[in-house]
Backbone:
């Protein structure tokens, strides 16, 4: 079963989607033609967890089942992003090197752009050279907000 629900959050309206008992999407743009609009227990718990994060009371989401839908390369990058510690940032270049893809920072950037699960896959922690804030599907202002939020509670 596929469900989604929308909530107002600290970074604006977010849509949370569930597919067969797994969170498959958290995003700022509606894209669920084949999903039913329904607040399930898992979606409700996910929203509660996001609020805890926004209030500095949660630093990980390992207790929430998620599933990725993407290429093998994207899944590899998203898994690597999930390992970036709370309150830290890494550059696209460093992330590509850690993933074993020398000079693959543009490909890493494209994978970040396709990240289906905002905050749970913390692509906001991936920054450009010299720590420049570049690219974020929910907007650069929100990327800065999330980085600053984590710095406050680290």
Residues:
């Amino acid at each position: 079963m596929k469900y989604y629900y929308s909530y107002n959050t600290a970074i604006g309206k977010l849509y949370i989607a569930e597919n067969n008992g797994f969170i498959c999407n958290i995003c700022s743009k509606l894209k669920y033609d084949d999903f039913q609009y329904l607040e399930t227990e898992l979606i409700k718990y996910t929203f509660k967890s996001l609020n805890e994060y926004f209030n500095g009371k949660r630093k990980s989401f390992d207790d929430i089942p998620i599933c990725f839908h993407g290429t093998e390369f994207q899944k590899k990058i998203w898994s690597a992003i999930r390992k970036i510690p709370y309150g830290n940032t890494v550059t696209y270049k460093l992330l590509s090197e850690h993933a074993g893809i020398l000079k693959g920072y543009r490909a890493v950037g494209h994978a970040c752009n396709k990240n289906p699960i905002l905050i749970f896959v913390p692509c906001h922690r991936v920054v450009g050279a010299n720590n420049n804030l570049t690219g974020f599907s929910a907007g650069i202002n929100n990327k800065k907000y999330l980085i600053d939020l984590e710095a406050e509670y680290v």
